[in-house]
Amino acid sequence: MTVTTPPAVIGKEGLNALVAALVAEGRTVVGPTVRDGAIVLAELTSAAQLPYGWGVELDAGRYRLVPREDGAAFAHSSGPQSWKSFLHPARERLWSADRTPEGGLSFTADDAEPPSYAFLGVRPCDLRAIAIQDRVLTGGRFEDSGYGRRRRGALLIAAECTEPGATCFCVSMGGGPAADPGYDLALTEVVDDDGHRFLVRVGSEEGARLLAGVPHRTADQVTEAAACGAVDAARDRMGRTLPPVDLRTLLGASLEAERWDDVAARCLTCGNCTMVCPTCFCTTTEEVTDLTGDHTERWQRWDSCFDLDFSYLHEGPVRTSGRSRYRQWLTHKLGTWHDQFGSSGCVGCGRCIAWCPVGIDITEEVAALHTELGTETER
Are residues 148 and 264 in the same domain? Predict the structure, then answer.
């Protein structure tokens, strides 16, 4: 259903009222806040907990908080977490079993109703990542029921990007700093001589209902122009870029490239890139029993294609080398993901670059593969 509510403007008091209204409705509000030297995602009880006045400095293998003079709340790049941590948690109990007095077994599915989430400050790259995980985890024949329950109840409040980081390359992946459809509300922060305010666009009837309940005014041309200008400027200030080629074809043609040996010499196969990636979805299961043997639980937990046992078959792992495991990750993310799910698995958030302990840069690796393949083609 098309929503025709015109853009509005709220101030900091309106943002405070929005969070208060969500909390009063019983929603678990999750948004960015400062903790442990980083901007992390955590439950918020007040908009005052947002990272007002904080930005970040990013580079390969580097992340630092830096103070900002303008007091902006959303002028920072993505932190180490994504919303995957809440929609597709790192550990989830699937069921438990207990031995009955008669010697049988009683099974109980762990299908309790999840929190009613309201995600505040969802970056456009993460909004696209959620859409990708929707296709992966609920779009096929076998739905991840836990993800489906959490996702269906989640309300998404996007925050458009006006300060791209040095590791951002969303434009290269067909995205950008503007929010795509899929949000309930989209905020664009403006801080200038006319004050600190947020342009608000409505994307759903639920979003319209929420906006109607907080102090706001109809958007003026000055605020709309300032918001659009800031987003447009961010599009031209991406810190990284990928070669403007068909990545699916490039990766498919580079399976025997020498560059894989170069990256394997640096890669620790630690799996950090898959943990921070907002779209990586692989899991495994494990059983946990108590000492009596009368109670057991099955848990689902994140897994990584960098784990030696990830490709384990009865004779041993299929991908035994770091070279083969890094190649699997990159060629799947940018190439064969298209075959499985109809799109790339990368949104250009740059987390894998910033949080790699040895600073491996996905954009640098793809550019090197492109150069090597082009050299070989010319021979």
Answer: no
Nearest to 362 by CA among 332, 321, 318, 319: 332
Position 375 scores a pLDDT of 64
Q: Are residues 41 and 178 in the same domain?
A: yes
The reply to whether 110 falls in a domain is yes
Relative orientation angle of helices 259-266 and 322-331, to the nearest 10 degrees: 110
Q: Which domain holds residue 369?
A: 247-378
Judgement on whether residues 252 and 190 belong to the same structural domain of the protein: no
Residues in the chain: 379
CA dihedral 205, 210, 4, 159 (to 10 degrees): -100
The stretches in the chain having pLDDT less than 70 are 1-3, 375-379
C-alpha to C-alpha distance for 241 and 269, rounded to whole angstroms: 24
Q: What percent of the chain has pLDDT over 90?
A: 90
Beta-strand ranges (E) seen in the chain are 8-11, 28-35, 38-43, 54-59, 62-67, 91-99, 105-109, 117-122, 155-159, 185-192, 195-202, 217-218, 283-289, 295-302, 312-313, 316-317
Do residues 221 and 228 make contact, with C-beta atoms less than 8 angstroms apart?
no
What Cα–Cα distance (Å) separates residue 248 from each residue in 58, 146, 173, 345, 352?
Answer: 28, 31, 12, 11, 19
Q: Which helix (H) or strand (E) holds 192?
A: strand 185-192
Comparing C-alpha atoms, which of 244, 221, 203 is closest to residue 366? 244
Q: d(Cα 16, Cα 22) in Å, to the nearest integer?
A: 10
Token pair belonging to 138? 């609920």
